[in-house]
Each structure stands twice: as C-alpha cells, then as structure tokens.
Amino acid sequence: MKNFIFWSLVIIFSLVIGHFTFASAWTITPDLAQEIAAKEKTVQLHPHDPYAYFDLAISYAYSNKVEEGWATLKKVVEIDPKYPPLGLRTCQEKAIRDPNDWKLRFRLAFALYFNNRKDEAIEQFENVLKIDPKNIWAYGYIAMILGEQGKVDKAVEYTKKAIALDSNVAVLHYLLGQGYYKQNLGWLGFVETMEALRLRSIGY
Q: Which of 3, 37, 80, 196 falls 20 to 30 Å from 64 in CA-CA distance?
C-alpha cells in the first residue's frame, strides 16, 4: 500500500510539474520546415519515384514526425518492392561524396536498416553523432535498433542520453517507457508513457 501511494505521488508530481515546465523543447526550424516543404513538393511532382518518398520519410524522421515518416517509408516498397538495395547504393554514393553531411549519414543509416544491416546502421547513426553530438534523433534510432536486437539495457542508456539533451520530446519518453517495461520496471514505464502522452497533447 505504501509503495502504491508513493508511486501515485510520483506520477502526480511529475505530471503537475511538467505542465509548469518551460524548458526549451526541440522545434522545427524555419530551414527544416522549408526542407520538408521542398521534399513534399518533390513527391507531388514525382509520385512514382521511390527515392522521393524515402528522402521525404527521412526528413520526417529527424523532424519529430515519426508517424508520418513510417507511413511514407511504406510507400517506397509499395511503389518498388525491389528498391531497398538500389536505395542503399544511392545513399552510399551520396555519403561518400559528402562525408561531413550528417543528413546524408542519417539516410545511409536508414537505408542500411531497411536492408537488414542493423549493426551497420547503428555505426552510421554513431557517425551522425560525431558530426552532430546533440542529435537526439540519432540517439533515439540507435536505441530503437538496440531494443529490436534485445539489447534493452543499452537501448535505455541511449534513450536517456537523448532525453538529457532535450526532455520535452514525446517519442523519446515513449521509447524509454517501452525499455522500462522490458526491464520489468512497470511503474517507471508507466510514468514515462504518461509523460509521452502529456507532451504529445501539447505538441511535443
């Protein structure tokens, strides 16, 4: 009973304090908004080009538009089921030409992931972090892959690193909550899931 009361107070406290926290949260910059608009336009102009959808999906992936990103990625294989190895080749060529462009590394990481080369995908997300050490999305997707591989403790570690950089991103708290559930830390999982729902409700 005491544990129940304690954790109930923790949840209430975290939710109340959260509503009055004004720490800066990750937002889409004007440049990123322009990038997304341009890639959405490319998809409209080339509705049968799988790379156009892939390119847009990855921009969504580092723009806190995770659901839109996965939905757009599905379009890639709907248009061309044989596209993944071709897309990987394209992403490799682009990354080789400009190795310091983290967005190209991000695309290469996803291309490797969708060719089931997950360890190599993690390596490329690590390369993103070498270029942009505060990239919360690279941390998040590394955590996602590690979770898929059953490396839950490491996944939680990477998610915490992302949240330490920005605590106001809903999807990161959801990811951490799922990690806690897999670690059999149900109450912590519940707290993180509630925080994810709260942040999503206010646009984060």
A: 80
pLDDT digits (tens, 9 = 90+) for 121-166: 999 999 999 999 999 999 999 999 999 999 999 999 999 999 999 9
Q: Token pair 């959801």 is at which residue?
A: 174
| Whole-angstrom distance, CA of residue 161 vs CA of residue 143 | 10
Pair 51, 79: CB distance under 8 Å: no
Instruction: Count how many residues are written for the chain.
Output: 204
Q: What token pair was written down for 172? A: 């990161």
CATH 3.30.1490.20 fits 136-204, yes or no: no
Which DSSP state fits 183? T
**pTM to 2 decimal places:** 0.86
Residue 37's pLDDT is what? 97
Whether residue 156 contacts residue 180, with contact meaning beta carbons closer than 8 Å, is answered with yes
CA distance 27 to 57: 18
Radius of gyration of the chain (CA): 18
- Is residue 104 within 8 Å of 125, Cβ to Cβ? no
pLDDT in tens, 7-17: 443 444 444 43
Q: Is 156 exposed, middle or buried (0-12, 13-18, 19+ CB in 10 A)?
A: buried
* Domain range list for the chain: 136-204
Which tokens sit at 109?
């990481």
